[in-house]
């Protein structure tokens, strides 16, 4: 056993949690952006909860959920469009060199 490291260490040959997170972020960078946008919208809407006026609580929460989901879906769509563009440009680049 190790001498009191104070934190869980993954077994040999496995990635640490932070290493895995950084690798996944490099593979698909828009996922953390979508998550951040979702959290930002939800935080703002919860902060504005007191100033909702005469709007019912359920309606305010539904609007909060829809706005947060819109950020997440928007990031997914941007990622899909970026991936399609990148794949298309890779496919057409060798074709342009052959002509």
First-last Cα distance:
63 Å
Strand content: under 5%
Main beta sheet strand tally, sense and closure:
none
Order of helices and strands: HHH
Mean pLDDT: 81
Query: Which residues sit in consecutive blocks of at least 5 with pLDDT less than 50?
Result: none
Number of domains: 1
Give the tally of β-strands.
Answer: 0
* Rg computed from alpha carbons, rounded to a whole number of angstroms: 22 Å
Shape: flat
Which structural category fits the helices and strands?
Answer: mainly alpha
Treating each run of at least 4 consecutive H or I residues as one helix, how many helices?
A: 3
Helical content (DSSP H or I, runs of 4+) = over 70%
Write the layout of secondary structure elements.
Blueprint: H1 17-27, H2 30-47, H3 57-98
Transmembrane segments: 30-47, 67-85
Main location: mitochondrion
Keywords: Membrane, Transmembrane, Transmembrane helix
Task: Quickly list its features.
mainly alpha; 99 residues; 3 helices; flat
Describe the structure.
This protein has 99 residues and is an all-alpha fold. It has one domain (14-93). Helix content is 72%, strand content 0%. It has 3 helices and no strands. It has helices at residues 17-27, 30-47, 57-98. The chain is flat, with a radius of gyration of 22 Å. The termini are far apart. This is HIG1 hypoxia inducible domain family member 1B. Residues 2-94 form the HIG1 domain. It is found in: Mitochondrion membrane.
């Amino acid at each position: 056993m190790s001498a009191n490291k104070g934190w869980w260490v993954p077994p040999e040959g496995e990635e640490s949690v932070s290493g895995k997170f950084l690798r996944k972020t490099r593979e698909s960078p828009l996922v953390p952006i979508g998550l951040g946008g979702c959290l930002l919208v939800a935080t703002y809407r919860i902060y504005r909860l007191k100033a909702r006026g005469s709007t019912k609580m359920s309606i305010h929460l539904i609007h909060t959920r829809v706005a947060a989901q819109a950020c997440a879906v928007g990031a997914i769509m941007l990622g899909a469009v970026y991936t399609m563009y990148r794949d298309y440009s890779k496919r057409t680049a060798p074709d342009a060199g052959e002509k």
